[in-house]
Amino acid sequence: MTLLTVERIKLFSTRSPWWCMILATALTVGLTSVFAATTKSRDLNDLTPSVTQFAYNFGLVVMMVMATLAVTTEYRFSTIRSTFLAVPRRTPALLAKVTVVGLVAGIVGEITAVGSWAVAKAIKPDAPLAIDTAQEYRNVFGVGLIYLLSAVLAVAVGLIVRQSAGAIVIELVYLLLLENLLPSIPTIGDNIQHWLPFTVGNNFIVAGQPETSDGPAVITGMPFGPWGSLVYFAAVCVGLFVVAGFLAKRRDA
Amino acid sequence: MIEAQGLTKRYGRTVAVNDLSFTVQPGRVTGFLGPNGAGKSTTMRMILGLDSPSAGTVRINGQRYAELRHPLRQVGALLDAKWVHPNRSARSHLRWIAASNRIPPRRVDEVLEIVGLTGVAGKRAGGFSLGMSQRLGIATALLGDPTVLLFDEPVNGLDPEGILWIRQFMQRLAGEGRTVFVSSHLLSEMALTAQDLVVIGRGRLIAQTSTREFIDNASESSVRVRGPEMQRLHGVLTSQGLAVRDLPAGDDGPAALLVTNSTTEQVGELVGRVGLVLHELSAQRGSLEQAFIQLTGGDVEYQSGGLGTPGAVRPPAQGAPAQPGEGPFAAPAGAGQTDPATQGGTTR
């Protein structure tokens, strides 16, 4: 509990996490409001809860940057050494950090998701935006869970790479390029795609709904259902964090 | 108390610290002396569990650092004053460190007061001058009111006022019965600060002894004598097996004789016995820096030249001791009498 307080003080006593949180929210909610405002009345029926989340990846990337920086700035300014001097067993300190950073990312994820939905509802009150079915709940409230787990993954990458620019480039290139390019390999591309972590994570949010041109991409034929997809994504993120924690414990600080 | 046993750190094929054993006693300032790159910082990081030793152990108050519960309440360390997030205020920096070891928050303001940073506690630490950063580092070390304190090159880059402040501060901490271990590459600084010394060169232990003993042994001690009958004087001294050099008249005064590796007592008694008149009898000391370079530089040759004959590896011009065992590497015979803390002091 004390260590959670420590990580909370550390995270909120510098300005960049605040900017990341504001930017993540402003980007997603802002883009959704533009989307809703420009939706023509004949397309109104397509403006579903799922479509209001079309921009969640923007906020996700920003929160992953925040999570990465929470670790890499500690290496950059050597405060990680002060951290390990205070908690020489290291593991509790790393667990506290990933918990605080993950929870903050998760909360911001829920705020952006609900905010995006609410702004769409406010701009187009007549659109079919009611949240009733389990699928619609996942469409909106599932976003926060993906934020949380992605932040865990980002902390892990930060711990392994220990350098801001390197870690962030790796995350962005992977998330924005590799996950989109690998599926275009002939023959095996589709099989690879079904196991790419963020694609599977996204499947948790969108699984089972018809593909629309507007909302987050829906890929058919995924190996898992929504909750199976979430477990798979969580396993990848937590697995990488375990590897990172092991490395951080063994390496000289 | 800090006890290191066979501490070794290898980076690939490079050996940064080699089989280092020493103890640091409470109630005194112990200097950790060695040239740049001798392995001082690596050793300190191993003491604090930041680096894991390739071999050997180091214990603080009988426990490994990682075994300490709330380590900051037992051990305070200032390894680098720049270990601060530049955009965090001094108070926030101390606040999170205090929270991590359940140190009450009011202690943060206490240590800020002690180091004189209360006025800038809310300012971002990135804007601090070197002296202020150093004070913040010391505040961090003092946070848990620890009994063991480690400082790595604390006076580096400080102005004279700052140096004096830190020096007196460390002596006061030791005076309160704490263990104070402070590294430096400057013997002259340590001569003023530390009562005991752990000296290393190239990762190996050169000496563990009291500072006074070390300086006495390290610096070349010679005697300058002058009298009306220089020829006879020369004869008397050489007949007793002393090494005598002629000093021509110059800036230091009129022509004289320099007796190396001797004391004023020895020379005075010798000359008195034969009834010679002296106009001058004075002890001469080599500079501390010279002595230090001689000692730590010699360690390199030591590895190839073998142990036990320090005279053999030192050029005679620098005043080689007449017999092996009288050089600076010799065990300080009188250490146990003059200074109980150095009993069993290790020398190589």
UniProtKB/TrEMBL annotation, chain A:
It comes from the Bacteria. The chain crosses the membrane at residues 55-73, 94-120, 140-161, 168-188, 230-248. The keyword Transmembrane applies. Keywords: Membrane, Transmembrane, Transmembrane helix. Pfam families: ABC2_membrane_4. PANTHER family: INTEGRAL MEMBRANE PROTEIN-RELATED (PTHR37305), MEMBRANE PROTEIN (PTHR37305:SF1). This is ABC-2 family transporter protein.
Automatic annotation (TrEMBL), chain B:
Residues 2-227 form the ABC transporter domain. GO terms for molecular function: ATP binding; ATP hydrolysis activity. Residues 339-348 have a biased composition (Polar residues). It comes from the Bacteria. InterPro entries: AAA+_ATPase (IPR003593), ABC_transporter-like_ATP-bd (IPR003439), ABC_transporter-like_CS (IPR017871), P-loop_NTPase (IPR027417). PROSITE patterns: ABC_TRANSPORTER_1, ABC_TRANSPORTER_2. Residues 310-337 have a biased composition (Low complexity). Residues 304-348 are annotated as: Disordered. CDD domains: ABC_BcrA_bacitracin_resist. Keywords: ATP-binding, Nucleotide-binding, Transport. Pfam families: ABC_tran. Belongs to the ABC transporter superfamily. This is Putative ABC transporter ATP-binding subunit. The lineage of its organism: Bacteria, Bacillati, Actinomycetota, Actinomycetes, Frankiales.
